[in-house]
Amino acid sequence: MSRSRDSRYGRAVRRRVALPLAGIALLLVIPLAMTVNAPRTAAAQGGTCPPLDTSPQTGPAAPGPGPWLLYTMASPSGIGYPPIRDLWAASADGASVRQVVAESPESHPLAYTPGPGGHVAYLTLSTDREPWLQPCLALNLLDLETGTHRAVARLTSDAVEASDEFPPDAKRAIADEPSLAWSPDGSQLAFIAALGDSGADLYLYDVAGDFIKRLSDEPDHAALPTWSPDGAYIAFQEMRTFGTGAGYAVEHLWAAAADGTGIVDLFAVGEDAYTGGEIYIGWTGAGELVFHDFINRANLRRANPATGETVLLREACLDDAALDPTTGTTLVVLHPAEYGCGREDSPAGAFLVSPDGSTVQAVEGDSFDPAWSAVDERFYTLTYGSGIVSIAPSGEAAVVATMDDGWYGMPLISPDGSTWAWTGNGVWVGPYGEPPRQIDEAIVYQANRFVSPLAAWHPDGDRLLYVGDEALYTAAAPNFAPELVAEGLTPTGWFWAYP
Questions:
Q1: pLDDT (tens digit, 9 = 90+) per residue, 309-345?
Q2: Is pLDDT above 50 for 16?
Q3: Are residues 414 and 379 in the same domain?
Q4: Of 382, 404, 426, which residue is a domain's last?
Q5: 450 is in which domain, residue-wise?
Q6: Is 475 within 8 Å of 483 (Cβ atoms)?
Q7: Domain's final residue, options 404, 419, 450
Q8: Could you please report the per-residue DSSP string of 352-420?
Q9: What is the pTM of this model?
Q10: Domain-embedded: residue 370
Q11: Buried-exposed string 45-75: b where 16+ CB fall within 10 A, e elsewhere
């Protein structure tokens, strides 16, 4: 099916419905009369890609009963684009480590997304062509408890595989950005696929029913799905093109009803505007998505799929942000003296933006890497000249650490709130709110500068797991003496998965 502005989801068939409440933006609902439920074997499987074997395959199960600490490492082939990654699982106590997904002669694995119920969704590429062509993308499902793998569906049609683009934008919507998202209850998986002539769309896979439902048919490419907390909506962006590194040409921010009854137009960028894509900060408990422009580093907004209302909270510059989902307060940070928005009239610092758009400066000076801690319900940010600052949603701020002692980044607070840990040129642990003591001199690998150290608390809060000097350690309370678990590790990321 060819796609154009006048096609089934073009302007000719769009209708606006006025809400009965005054002052609320118009809600655009697009009915999905052509949404279909199809068995997962109905996807195209011939042509330029080999037939997809959807029969269950048995492999190594994750060690122990769960939860599991999963981490990715570069595959032996060492391919850089797209990032080919194997998956490893460590038992919750750190006593055992096992590889659960590995590169094979037939496929390259990448892009893992854990969900409730012990499932991990991931993508694979065929090995019959160069990986940078992203050939024969497929969706797979791993059951950590049994080690069972299933190929769920091909994600590209023969027409997309035959495209002259290298790789086509439809494939980039699947492989270049996060394209898999589990529903809050783990029963459904939202994913992006390009099963038509050219564009990528949003689909939904039902795990128990083992069927696929199409949720969108916009003219361009669906990308970046994210679920509302109640599981009722899946927000996603429509991209004209993914560009060459300076951001994406986004058309709309949509929200699809998970039951397939329609999609809501939350935000239209317009053909003459260029935001580079929208950066999701997070969802509030009230079901509103908070986001901002990528290119401009400005225009903080919140959008409510249930009402169709989108509100501009802050037009001014921002360099990064974090969200308190309970109050809907956003912490935005600025450091124009170094880089970022580059607006001389924007003072550096950290600012609290309330759901009504009112703004209060909480910290002065160049601020970086804001983070929200659900355990102690506070924001944290790194501020040059002060150190690491803790900020309450109400505005009270206090310096909790400096950079003088070798640790840096945000504190890792145990789930029960009794203990916190710091990493950097070593590992430090101590009672919450008190100066920590150093337990190890190993340099902890940082996956993303300050905010993503490869260190994590066990869900019970009784031990800390971390990767230092290319080895996995566990340190159990009360003494937190490090114990070596495995050596020779260079993880690219990790996350907890639950049975």
A1: 999 999 988 889 999 999 999 999 987 655 555 455 6
A2: no
A3: no
A4: 404
A5: 408-489
A6: yes
A7: 404
A8: EE-TTS-EEEEEES-EEEEEEETTTTEEEEEETTTEEEEE-TTS-EEEEE-STTSEEEEEEE-TTSSEE
A9: 0.86
A10: yes
A11: beebbeebebeeeeeebbbbebbbbbbbbbb
